[in-house]
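thread: overnight batch results

M.L. [08:02]
morning all. the overnight job finished for the chain we discussed friday. pasting input first so we're all looking at the same thing
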Amino acid sequence: MSVATNSSVLAPIAWADVACDVRDGALALSRLVVSAAGFATLLLAAVALTNDGVRHTLKAALFTPAVHASETADAESEATAMDEVANKTVEPAVATDPRQKHIVQYLARRYRVAEEATRMLVATAFQVGREQKLDPLLILSVVAIESGLNPFAESAMGAQGLMQVMTRIHAERFEAHGGHLAALDPVANMKVGSAILGDLINRGGSVERGLQLYVGAGNLPDDGGYGARVLGERSRLALAASGKVDAAISAGRTAVASEQKPAAVEAAMPVAQPVVTPAADAPIRSEEHAPAREA
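M.L. [08:03]
and the structure it wrote out:
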């Protein structure tokens, strides 16, 4: 009786132990399978990343769309900004003032500069003239005489750009335009040069005296003909603006010929030249002015 009773009691316990063993075995097997799968995945990833082709493919798939989207957005933004600048500064100025078209034709032909570049310079001169209350034809005259419309012109003494500004002396004026390298930017150079010219005209009391100060001959008896050349060019620009472009070009060539004749005669005469001390009042440059390139 006792043996049967013990058997009936132990049977359920045995089956419970078997169930627990099966469960524990299944859990252990599951952990082993998951661990093996994770290890295999890591191994495959390591092998794939060591392959240059696979790595470049993954990089292109993951990062290229965002880069292209950013570059496209930047390009579109830059293009929009350039269009706005062109529409605000160049095109309206040329289109609304027929005088500028004739001035562009004169300067482009006289100084052999592309009309597209000349159009920008003329429009900038008129815009700067309005902002600084300065005659735009006078600005263009100084540009023509100083650099022949070459924005990268530089003298031996360091005068730079369209209006040949002494950058090292007027470095602070270029800070608002991005620093000293802005001296070679046509718009920045014209703005700074025009501001200096306007200040000197106000200080001197006349355009003639302002030009004498601008060329660095403030303490000399005269400016060596610099003012006459600038004002002569201004009169030709005014003639061209009235529509007489050919007449203005012809007058310019006549002026060049008349300037060259005295120079040739003086060079042939062995006359001792006086020693000229550098000008103390020389805001633009300190070297003797050299004639600009003529067509």
